[in-house]
Amino acid sequence: MDRAAQAGRQKKVLTDPARHPPGGCVDCNRLRHDNQRLRQRVSHLEGLLEEARRSAKRQAAPFSKGAPVSTPRKPGRRCGSAYGPKARRPIPTRVDETIDAPLPDACPSCGGGVELQAVADQYQTDIPPVRPLVLRVRVQVGACRQCGQRVQGRHPRQTSDALGAAASQLGPRAVALAADMNKGFGLPYGKVKSIFSSHFGLDVSRGGLCTALQRLARQGQPTYDGLVETIRTSPVVSPDETGWKVAGHLRWLWAFVTPQATVYAIFDGRGYDEAALILGPDFAGTLVRDGWAPYRKFTLAEHQSCLAHLLRRCHEMIEAADRGAARFPHAVRRILLAALLLRDRHARGEISAHGLVVAKGRLAARLERLLRWNVTHKPNATFRKHLTNESPHLLTFLGRDDVPATNFQAEQAIRPAVVNRKVWGGNRTWRGAQTQQVLASILRTMRQQRRDPYPILERLLRSPEPARLELVTLGNGPPR
């Protein structure tokens, strides 16, 4: 067959309506549709990937999340019943100085005479100039007549027995303020030094501040150990962990939180062994935690898995998945929101204790049926496996007023550490890490109880030996 005849035959085959319908074959149409859908999905995922890459390089300052809306909401509080509590600065109960603001001799607008009609009061509460208080302690030094041992006196206001080259020291109030600035508010030693010099007239080096805080941490080590014992015996504990640098290497900072105390600990890892160093391997309370698998090894404890983490994961999966794959995270989200609504209705008295138990059982049955779904989408299958492991711990908070549905307490305790990490990166030595965990735990615990931490830190510094103060007491009274 010649070439022209072969070409004509191929053209006839290609144009045969029986073999190739006008709209194309069904398989070709389906492939074109799938190709278009996959192209759109790839474009969407590429945009998400680029946004994730850019957000990873952002600094701590907030950035725009997109183009501004054309009609933004008016700033400030809304008027009406939803305004919230109205407040103003209260009138001081004590006045230290009174000055007069007389009327001008003439009106500033027209130059006419001015007549006195009333006298109004205005108040200013200011910080007075700070002048350092220098205390000289006349230390008597002697020797024992019997054994010849050197003996020296000590006053209750002293913070150290050091003499000679170390005789000039920072006072307890200054050391407590430095500890709060550095460990509580995250200011580097250099900025603390500048504030002390410019505002208080105190000249101190960064090394001197570091040494003073290390000594304060040694004095507070028994108090820190007491907080660890409090965590171990607490009925409900919220743990969490985040990355932390020590000597330039990645380590982990843990936070263990109860309603009255917080313990920070810096360890090499983030596994069960590290958590057991604080909680104890036989911890039998309730752990309100995220889905990190090592927490499940505390088999004697009751668990509550954080619903906020699961709802956030559902939201991310719904945004990334197509319509068919989004059914599973949508169903999980409905069950979790129903559990939170049930908790709120019970708290308002709309549901009795018996009704709560019945409704909780129905939610557990819905969850069990959901986990039996035949899930083929890989992210959904991974999520279902995680929920299967966590299913016994999702509804513990229902009927337990002392158990929250999320580990928000631990998240809030971790947040200051994350801010400090952005400012000065971590600790240069393990001694610095020990100082960090002791002082940060004491400061955070006192702030939880709405108590002033400075008297506690001063008391620790003035103690001749490392002292143990029981910071968690009945009624939050003075520490013992």
Short description:
This protein is α/β, with parallel strands linked by helices and 480 residues long.
What does this structure look like?
The chain is of the alpha/beta class and 480 residues long. Among the domains are: 212-303 and 407-476, Nucleotidyltransferase, domain 5, CATH 3.30.420; 307-393. The chain has helices at residues 3-14, 26-56, 172-184, 189-200, 206-232, 272-279, 307-320, 327-347, 353-370, 378-390, 408-424, 430-448, 454-462; strands spanning 141-143, 150-152, 236-246, 249-257, 262-267, 286-289, 302-305, 426-427. Strands 3, 4, 5, 6, 7 and 8 form a six-stranded mixed β-sheet that branches. Strands 1-2 form a two-stranded antiparallel sheet. A hairpin with a 6-residue loop joins strand 1 and strand 2 (150-152). Helix 3 (172-184) crosses helix 12 and helix 5 packs across helix 12. The longest helix is centred in the first third of the chain and has 31 residues, at 26-56. The protein is extended, with a radius of gyration of 34 Å. It starts with a helix and ends in an 18-residue tail after the last helix. The model is unreliable at 474-480 (pLDDT under 50).
